[in-house]
Amino acid sequence: MDRVPILKIGDVLIVSIQGDLDDQSVLTLQEDLADRVVATGAIGVIIDITAVEIVDSFVGRMLSTIAGMSRMLDAETIVVGMRPAVAITLVELGLSLGGLRTALDLEKGVALLSRHGTQGTSDLSAVGL
Amino acid sequence: MSHPPAPRTVEELTITSNDEVVTVRQKVRATAIELGFSLVDQTKVVTAASELARNTLVHAGGGQANITIVQNGARRGIRLVFSDNGPGIPDRQLALTDGWSSGGGLGLGLSGSRRLMDEFVLESEPGRGTVVTVTKWTR
Ligand SMILES: Nc1ncnc2c1ncn2[C@@H]1O[C@H](COP(=O)(O)OP(=O)(O)OP(=O)(O)O)[C@@H](O)[C@H]1O
Ligand SMILES: [Mg+2]
After folding, report:
1. Domain named STAS: which ranges (chain A) (predicted)?
2. Could you tell me the CA-to-CA distances from B2 to B5, B6, B72, B81, B138 in Å, in that order?
């Protein structure tokens, strides 16, 4: 099982998913993120899926769950870097991912959150989980 | 008249753990690349494989995945067979309905895989097991 590192930059948590995660790792990431949102009082979560080659119903559900969970904890989730082939496949699979905000890349994702009141700072701390 | 070439089995994989579901995805991807599928079609085939392999693990407690290269005239294709000796599916029509799940799933695995692939056959008998056979042809 791989543990996905969660970075904290200012008030925002950033997760960059690398490679092909098994289902248990996906669930662990979901729980780790919930814990980190509460522990840090983050106002935003950015999930970078640039390196993700497929999003199936399991990963899709994880993304929606994280978005719903963080919304309840007063944080906004933005998924960035979805590959075009992944987007096309998701639509055909039937996954709407309603309520999930997306941005083309990390920079645009951060900009989206900034507009919602985040102060971008240079306080970059890798959180070893 | 020449006979069509026999299907060539590339991989016979067991599905008994989350790790092996990942292995199925990787082997399917490698075969799809070898066959020259476009990136979008590779992604569709691997996504369907992921759904069906997970079903085998979660709903049947494990089973097997076979990856085969098939040929129809000039066209080549990838055929995936997921088989198990699990509880089977009592109502196949219902199981193929978008959004229907016997557990807490999204109910998109079977119906979504059917859309992502060119051919989809679901055979199942309660108490005996399930076989899902899907095929995608190169364009
Ligand atoms: N190999 C199998 N053995 C027994 N039952 C199965 C099998 N595959 C699917 N099913 C049944 O068919 C239903 C629909 O499957 P489907 O993959 O569409 O949805 P799901 O697995 O419940 O949710 P998800 O969208 O997360 O995949 C399942 O809930 C299960 O009851
Ligand atoms: Mg399923």
Report:
1. 2-113
2. 9, 12, 13, 27, 22
